[in-house]
Design brief:
Length: 392
């Protein structure tokens, strides 16, 4: 069976990978790949700048070795699974959710480790777009005479590491815009009250998303109105980097976000002229990032490129309306997630500001819309359809 591997959205280089020979997958392949995905999901948010990868080694229908990317990205999943399997790896099948690396970085190449362990077959969820790996891990395995199957639960494997893929292929993190809104699209009442629009079930999911994100970001207006902490408050979770977009340094100095006892830093993104004032005003623990700006505000594209440079792969934007509009206008949002509550405010603050769609055809269009109940709310999620970006 011969096919061209499916592509990663938004990257023409990834789509140019050579066609590869694969064997058809089976129901058993999908069963064991789901084991890999479950392992990888348990480490989302902990492995940056590396992807979160799961690996299981199966012999005679039983798992003899398991591995998952360790916090900080090392060691990788494959050597852990091989070590657990020991001599039972010889002649077995290794399942791995992401293409094994073939280059020597801070760890030896995983493709070589699988070959030296004597596995007879390797089943790969999706190929790795990272240039030193891209197709080379698969090529190494094939050259070593190991049978390979590629693309088992491929879309699920890609989505699990969508942040890593976006950072590698587009030089920016994957960005999710999350908003809690009333049925008539308000994020607060006319007096600014917004606690709580969403249900406890929705808020718990958001804390899980914070664990999985490298960065959670809000605008100055949200800091002023809500005084958020932006920490993760679920057992076993981790705090993301907290970022405030504040061109004019309007955020109050006593805001809770600047005084968290957390291993994750707080960063204030502002203009070049205001950046030197940040530590003096907000304290030595608050870092400043300077970015260029124009009449629309700070350049979010520039900010996202800086985040990618730091190895951050996923950003969760949590408000407010101006930041939501700026992010959508800049074309940096990949997915929207609206928690729609069974409330009608009438007058109140709109969910998005600053977009000027004069005609229906000018609206930002969405693809792959899904809806599911969550507590008393409905969670609506969709990807942003490709479009011509407005200049910033």
């Amino acid at each position: 069976m011969r096919r061209r591997d499916s592509t990663c959205p938004g990257d023409s280089r990834f789509s140019k990978l050579a066609a590869v020979e694969i064997a058809p997958s089976t129901d058993q392949d999908e069963r064991w790949m789901r084991e890999c995905l479950d392992l990888a999901k348990s480490r989302l948010g902990f492995t940056s700048p590396n992807p979160s990868v799961g690996c299981v080694i199966v012999r005679q229908g039983k798992i003899v070795g398991r591995g998952v990317t360790a916090p900080g990205g090392r060691p990788h999943a494959e050597p852990q699974a091989i070590a657990q399997a020991g001599h039972l790896a010889r002649g077995a099948t290794a399942y791995v959710s992401f293409e094994p690396c073939a280059h020597r970085g801070q760890t030896p190449p995983c493709a070589r480790a699988l070959a030296e362990a004597g596995v007879a077959r390797v089943v790969i969820g999706c190929l790795d777009p990272y240039p030193p790996v891209r197709g080379r891990g698969l090529a190494f395995l094939k050259a070593a005479g190991i049978a390979t199957t590629v693309g088992v639960l491929e879309s699920e494997c890609r989505r699990l590491n969508e942040g890593f893929i976006a950072r590698v292929t587009r030089k920016r993190p994957f960005v999710i815009l999350k908003l809690a809104v009333s049925l008539d699209g308000r994020i607060a009442t006319a007096t600014g009250d917004s606690r709580w629009i969403s249900s406890s079930a929705s808020r718990e999911l958001v804390h899980k998303w914070r664990t999985e994100a490298d960065v959670v970001m809000v605008g100055a207006a949200t800091v002023i109105a809500d005084n958020p902490r932006l920490t993760c408050r679920i057992e076993g979770g981790r705090d993301p980097v907290r970022v405030v977009l504040d061109q004019r340094l309007r955020s109050p100095t006593n805001s809770r976000i600047f005084h968290q006892r957390s291993p994750a830093p707080t960063i204030l993104v502002t203009s070049f002229s205001n950046a030197p004032k940040v530590k003096r005003r907000y304290g030595p623990r608050v870092e400043a990032i300077a970015a260029s700006s124009d009449e629309h505000g700070i350049s979010l594209r520039e900010v996202m490129h800086e985040f990618a440079r730091r190895g951050w792969s996923k950003v969760l934007i949590e408000g407010g309306a101006k930041l939501a509009g700026t992010a959508l206008r800049a074309g940096i949002v990949d997915r929207v997630a609206f928690f729609v509550a069974p409330l009608i405010f009438g007058c109140g603050l709109p969910s998005v500001e600053g977009l000027l769609a004069r005609k229906v055809r000018d609206a930002i269009k969405l693809n792959n819309l899904t809806a599911r109940p969550l507590g008393s709310d409905w969670l609506l999620e969709a990807s942003i359809a490709p479009r011509k970006l407005a200049s910033q």
